[in-house]
Design a protein that fits this description.
Length: 331
């Protein structure tokens, strides 16, 4: 593990034992998140992005799940931790902003009750309720909520989507975490509120020095918010690089297809849908999981594709680039 590495996921496999058979979703996933970095994770729905975030948080405890591989936090294997240690870690150092803010908040408790619980869990000492409420008021003002007492008295269903998302962001950052996992924040909001929410999240995480793993479908948001990018397909990381590198020169056929499916406000080319569907994980294709949909598929694609390293922090998993040199790589 290199210096400054916060989270390192190595060769992570997640399988679900279902009535239909074994569903092998995550298949050898590896990512690295450094201190203070803003990382993007993109791919179609059903590719395993949210599942990866839940693995990092330790939220997969069902009996029908089998997990292999390693997730290291500051070099320490999370799977070797006791359950109480992992719960303490995700209460203080690793937090998550869920996709639907109203679903993430408990409807039968006030915002005050829920924020007090979060602040008490994250503190190094037991705080009194009134002290926690003072912290909550200050935190809500930081996200431009002018009447924090009204929000604290409210139940989640009494808040607008944008207000609920601000509460979720506040709760995620209340205890100065080192890593925020943001799973499609703002997806359920209209575009203007979504932009405000993402700008707010960027400002607050930067002030706190927190790293962010942003799971998103909106490539425009990823380009503006993130520094590095991982592209995931079928439970596999197929490409990695800086945002500038991948947007300027997408290498993997899936990355190219993903970018080609984005609607444009100008230009003559219409977006092109990606043929086919994300695979059924109980019957996942052998070799490259994208090859049944890939326009460049070759017989070799039915064998496990190599990870081709093309420089520091730049790589692609595809037989088309096997043996390629950094200076001669072209899509």
């Amino acid at each position: 593990m290199t210096e400054g590495t916060l989270i390192e996921v190595e060769d992570l496999h997640v399988r679900f034992d279902l009535f239909e058979g074994v569903s092998h979703v995550l298949n050898g996933v590896g990512i690295t998140i450094r201190n203070g970095e803003r990382i993007g994770l993109v791919g179609e729905s059903g590719c395993g992005k949210s599942l990866l975030a839940r693995c990092i948080l330790g939220l997969l405890e069902q009996k029908n799940i089998r997990i292999d591989g390693a997730i290291r936090y500051h070099g320490r294997d999370l799977f070797a931790m006791r359950g109480s240690e992992w719960r303490d870690l995700r209460g203080r150092r690793i937090t998550m902003i869920f996709q639907d803010p109203t679903a993430a908040l408990n409807p039968v408790f006030t915002v005050a009750d829920q924020m007090v619980e979060v602040i008490q869990r994250g503190g190094n000492r037991k705080r009194k309720r009134e002290e926690c409420l003072d912290i909550a008021r200050g935190a809500l003002r930081r996200v431009f909520i002018d009447d924090p007492d009204r929000v604290l008295r409210s139940y989640p269903f009494q808040l607008s989507g944008g207000m609920a998302q601000r509460v979720i962001i506040t709760m995620a950052l209340a205890n100065d975490p080192e890593l925020v996992l943001a799973d499609e924040p703002g997806t359920s909001l209209d575009v203007t509120v979504q932009e405000q929410t993402l700008r707010l999240m960027a400002t607050l995480t930067q002030e706190a020095g927190a790293a962010v793993l942003l799971i998103a479908h909106n490539l425009g948001v990823v380009r503006e918010f993130c520094e590095r990018l991982y592209v995931m397909y079928g439970g596999v990381i197929v490409e990695e690089g800086s945002v500038e590198e991948i947007f300027n020169e997408p290498l993997h056929p899936y990355t190219q297809a993903l970018f080609g499916a984005v609607p444009r406000l100008w230009g003559g080319d219409l977006p092109k849908a990606i043929a086919g569907m994300v695979p059924d994980y109980t019957q996942a294709p052998e070799g490259c999981r994208f090859h049944p949909r890939c326009p460049h598929a070759k017989p070799e694609c039915q064998s496990t594709p190599p990870w081709v390293k093309l420089g520091e922090g730049r790589g692609v998993r595809c037989v088309l680039f096997e043996g390629a040199e950094r200076s001669t790589v072209h899509a």
